[in-house]
Specification:
The chain has 176 residues and is of the alpha/beta class. It has 2 domains: 115 residues, Response regulator (Rossmann fold, 3-Layer(aba) Sandwich); 53 residues, Winged helix-like DNA-binding domain superfamily/Winged helix DNA-binding domain (Arc Repressor Mutant, subunit A), CATH 1.10.10.10. 57% of the residues lie in helices and 16% in strands. It is built from 8 helices and 5 strands; from the N terminus they run E-H-E-H-E-H-E-H-E-H-H-H-H. Strand 1, helix 1 and strand 2 form a beta-alpha-beta unit. The protein is elongated.
Length: 176
């Protein structure tokens, strides 16, 4: 089952949503109050359904889906004005106030979609990706999230799997 990450600036919203989801059998992986906290959580996990409640000034939904489109499904629950300012067709939207039944149905659907499209990285390919990230961190002075994002962006832009790009990085380093 996909891990669920809740993000909202309001503690009450996060708490109520977490209660609703856990009582419906979902596992809430993380509850975040800011965009930066959300990005750290996403860099730790590769199988997330993100539920964003309301407007996050430091985390625009369109940017989030662009940065993590291969590893997340995004449900935005917000007022109609916020939903109208969201462009990406990959973002699932619910208008506030949303019923608990509508939220559960949306999360079930997104969990299934996420599970179907998420490539499963084997232990070997995960090790290759981690070694390549460590190499980039050392050579380029990047943090782990920066190295991960750089690799992810390059692989997406060139239609490659991240593990294949990681292997290229490691092979290049052995040549020098």
């Amino acid at each position: 089952m996909a891990r669920i990450v809740i993000v909202s600036p309001l503690e009450d919203s996060r708490s109520k949503l977490a209660g609703l989801l856990t009582s419906s059998g979902f596992q809430v992986f993380r509850s975040c109050s800011s965009g930066s906290e959300l990005r750290r959580a996403l860099n730790e996990s590769e199988d997330c359904v993100v539920i964003m409640v309301g407007f996050m000034p430091d985390c625009k939904p369109d940017e989030l889906i662009w940065d993590y489109r291969d590893s997340i499904q995004l449900l935005l629950i917000a007022k109609q004005q916020v939903l109208d300012n969201t462009e990406s067709p990959e973002i699932f939207r619910l208008t506030l106030p949303a019923s608990g039944q509508a939220v559960i149905g949306a999360v079930q659907m997104l969990s299934q979609l996420h599970r179907m499209r998420l490539p499963r990285r084997t232990g070997e390919s995960r090790d290759i990706v981690n070694r390549a990230k460590a190499l980039l961190m050392k050579q380029k002075g990047l943090s782990e999230p920066e190295a991960h994002r750089a690799m992810q962006q390059y692989a997406m832009n060139h239609g490659m799997k991240m593990a294949d790009f990681a292997m290229r990085i490691l092979e290049k380093s052995e040549e020098t």
